[in-house]
Write a structure and sequence with these properties.
Elements lengths: L6 H20 L12 H23 L3 H38 L5 H29 L5 H23 L2 E3 L5 E4 L7 E2 L6
Antiparallel strand pairs: 1-2, 1-3
């Protein structure tokens, strides 16, 4: 079996697992309160996700087996850097949101610092994409690289959407985690002051 790991899988798995669990609960396979998905179940879900993603990428980008092998190698080479950027970007976004939303008078120096960090991260992401595209250009055509870049961008946006979705409560007032796309729910409101 081909082993294909996209960097965004690791970032996605943290987001996808709660949604898979929510879907499982919606089907009536409820876990007791406070119980989490077992590591074996999580690993199986991640493996299925990897396999499906590999098939989608191979079909949409039009890759042969040798190109898939080399693509996997390139992804592994850039994985750590990409995940580090995702982590830093998320931390910066959370800090910015906290500074602006939780403080009546935000610390302007802190906001300026966070804006600079956000710009730095975007610059580093572009440098990373440029280096990755140079490596991919050694075995993919320009149109294959463009298609692959499009898939990566779609996944990055989807991850951001899922991560930024606010928590909700169901009709009975129980906390139900994050709402899957297209699922109605009642948004939590902050407690009155």
């Amino acid at each position: 079996m081909r082993r294909f790991v996209l960097v965004c899988l690791l970032a996605t798995s943290a987001v996808a697992m709660p949604h898979a669990l929510t879907a499982q609960r919606a089907r009536g396979n409820r876990l007791p309160p406070g119980e989490r998905m077992r590591p074996q179940e999580r690993a199986q879900l991640e493996q299925r996700f990897r396999e499906r993603l590999a098939v989608v990428v191979q079909q949409q980008v039009g890759l042969n087996d040798e190109q898939m092998r080399r693509l996997s190698e390139v992804n592994q080479r850039y994985e750590t850097k990409r995940l580090e950027l995702v982590r830093r970007e998320r931390e910066t976004r959370i800090a910015m949101r906290r500074e602006l939303m939780e403080n009546a008078s935000p610390n302007e120096d802190r906001v300026a610092q966070l804006l600079q960090e956000s710009t730095r991260i975007q610059r580093e992401r572009l440098d990373l994409v440029e280096a990755e595209q140079a490596d991919l250009g050694k075995f993919l055509t320009p149109s294959q690289r463009a298609r692959y870049l499009g898939i990566q961008e779609q996944m990055r946006r989807r991850i951001e959407e899922l991560r930024d979705r606010p928590p909700f409560v169901d009709e009975q007032g129980r906390g139900a985690g994050r709402r899957p796309a297209g699922t109605p729910g009642i948004r939590r409101r902050p407690p009155p002051n």
